[in-house]
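Sequence in, structure out. Go.
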Amino acid sequence: MALHSMRKARERWSFIRALHKGSAAAPALQVSEHTQLSWILSCMVRLPRLQHLHQWKAKTTKQKHDGTVGLLTYPVLQAADILLYKSTHVPVGEDQVQHMELVQDLAQGFNKKYGEFFPVPESILTSMKKVKSLRDPSAKMSKSDPDKLATVRITDSPEEIVQKFRKAVTDFTSEVTYDPAGRAGVSNIVAVHAAVTGLSVEEVVRRSAGMNTARYKLAVADAVIEKFAPIKREIEKLKLDKDHLEKVLQIGSAKAKELAYTVCQEVKKLVGFL
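Output:
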């Protein structure tokens, strides 16, 4: 579960630091073992393997082949995030399956060279494997998308969510149907609707019979707002208790450090660093 948890930890740390807005914030314990294991693993993977990962190719193309080494080797850091805690199962999106294959190969390669040490983790895919961009249904929804209307965020206001769905790309057919190959835009909205309501795609389409896409987009926006409401309330509640957030982060960092240090030391002994 490390990939998911460590990403969330990083996001929460940024959030907490922003709340404090100054040097008064007590520094959280840093888990340097992530980068240490990442370096060891990077010595076990060949350059062409990383260059052929589809996310690297897509992102560096978008950046006009100006991608950095950090971007290229980020999947190795992801592998370190996972293997450092000897994770056995990792919840991932469809776009991360290829990166998980790299994690599995690194674990198997390490075990073959140094003896059985790392479990070979398995991917856990949810029923909704990928959320597509509201502005470009051929691409995934991403928080780094420069088009602010493309991505719905949990912290968005109801007005912002309505605007994003109103501007979502569909087509010239007003009927609500699910056909990812032929009607990617509408199908993406149907998939989002199914995900936030817990209904099947078929049931969502059935209940939307007779509704045009313009009206349907507003109905989906309302469903998303309703789904996000309790989460937003909890976020606002937590933002009022900065000391609690800081304490939780520090306790979590200390526990992660304790686990990570032991595994990293064992790895260093196996490879001959100690």
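Check: The mean pLDDT is 88. The CA atoms of residues 95 and 130 lie 7 Å apart.
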